[in-house]
Design brief:
elongated, 394 residues, two-stranded antiparallel ribbon, 3 domains, 59% helix, 16 helices, 2 strands
Length: 394
């Protein structure tokens, strides 16, 4: 059956809205007609053939006509017919797609060749390459077959199904790696809504696979590989190849429920990683630091008083900045400054410094653990904590 006759034969499967759109295009809105179904079909049959044969038609009109035929919503329920009329716009898209064949991997070329040949192969897990050719040899085979199909195309005829399937795999391959393409996925053949939905779900899940955490991978393994055929360290990459295999053939082969479940789980995972520096976490870190600082301050104060009473340190000097009422250091200096920068005052002797170092080294681990689990409740610690917190946020 010739391409034009084939296109005319499917008018009975078009919706009234699609028939009206086609009738307006082929008559160039120069003919008045009723919007009843019988009359719309008659107008399309009377004018479509002459319209496609008219060399003076506008490319934009052909593009609009092609979109109507490729839109799944243009067909009556359960009567979707796969048809794509060859237009000048479509020929340009085919040429651009064929120019990208060199970018495909051997797995992608293998899938293209199978679809071009009309082979129907169900993906297996783990996926395997069905050809024993080198990448270069397989590329030459694909190009040869594509050129054969391309040379037989004529405007107005129906797009060959095998050729449309192979070109669609090329577009899906580029989309899966680049995240977008200049040519729509359904450019060469219309897909039912269910197929388009499955394709987009798989394409959306593929970029998330490398981001899955170990525990998320562990959840997917029982679904896809319950017998443990694939080592766990290579499961992620194998699953990606398996999902891509079904991406290429989901229009003809039903995707298993376990694969759809895995895709759904991947797509429902949070796309934004938890913020490790949220306000809550930041406040906890600040509180821990302030508690440690407060505790060290108290230790230093007690040691200074003890040494001062023995005459090792000038009590008058050591008492500067020490509040007897609060029994703690109340220096206006930054409490995060260490020895040598006013933390224990420059007047502290070398001997006292050694004692402090030895004493503090023994209690730092204790103070850190206490800071994580216990909040100091002494008045001095509350004072120091509030004082330092204000300085920290400043």
């Amino acid at each position: 059956m010739e391409g034009k006759e084939r296109i005319l034969s499917i008018t009975r499967d078009l919706t009234n809205t699609a028939l009206y759109s086609i009738a307006c295009i082929v008559t160039r809105n120069n003919l008045k007609f009723k919007r009843t179904r019988p009359e719309l079909i008659e107008v399309v049959k009377d004018h479509l053939t002459s319209y496609l044969s008219d060399a003076g038609r506008e490319p934009d009109e052909l593009c609009r006509l092609s979109k109507v035929f490729k839109n799944p919503n243009s067909y009556l329920q359960n009567n979707l017919q796969i048809v794509t009329p060859v237009t000048e716009h479509l020929l340009v898209s085919i040429s651009k797609t064929l120019e990208r064949l060199d970018e495909l991997t051997i797995r992608e070329l293998d899938a293209v060749f199978r679809r071009l040949s009309g082979a129907k192969v169900k993906p297996c897990f783990p996926p395997v390459i069905k050809t024993h050719c080198s990448t270069q040899d397989l590329l030459l085979k694909v190009k040869k077959l594509c050129n054969k199909y391309y040379s037989s195309l004529q405007e107005g005829q129906e797009m060959l199904k095998e050729f449309a399937n192979g070109l669609t795999v090329v577009i899906l391959s580029l989309y899966s790696r680049l995240g977008q393409t200049t040519i729509p996925i359904n450019e060469f053949r219309p897909f039912p809504k269910e197929v388009m939905s499955t394709q987009m779900e798989i394409l959306h899940a593929l970029p998330s696979l490398p981001k899955l955490r170990k525990e998320e991978i562990e959840t997917l393994i029982p679904l896809i590989d319950p017998t443990g055929m694939v080592p766990r360290n290579s499961f992620r990459n194998t699953l990606k190849k398996y999902m891509i295999e079904y991406l290429f053939v989901c229009d003809e082969i039903s995707v298993p429920k376990e694969v759809l479940r895995a895709v759904d789980l991947i797509n429902k995972r949070p796309q934004v990683e938890p913020n490790l520096f949220s306000k809550e976490n930041r406040d906890k870190e600040v509180e821990a630091v302030l508690n440690v600082s407060c505790y060290l301050n108290s230790v230093a104060a007690n040691l200074l008083l003890e040494k001062g009473s023995e005459g090792s340190v000038d009590v008058e000097v050591a008492s500067e900045g020490y509040d007897e009422g609060k029994k703690n250091w109340c220096s206006e200096n930054n409490d995060f400054n260490f020895c040598g920068t006013d933390y224990f005052f420059n007047s502290v002797s070398e001997e006292l410094g050694k004692d402090l170092e030895e004493t503090l080294s023994n209690c730092i681990s204790e103070s850190v653990n206490s800071a994580k689990g216990t909040s100091f409740s002494t008045d001095s610690c509350k004072y120091q904590g509030n004082h330092q917190r204000s300085m920290f946020y400043a």
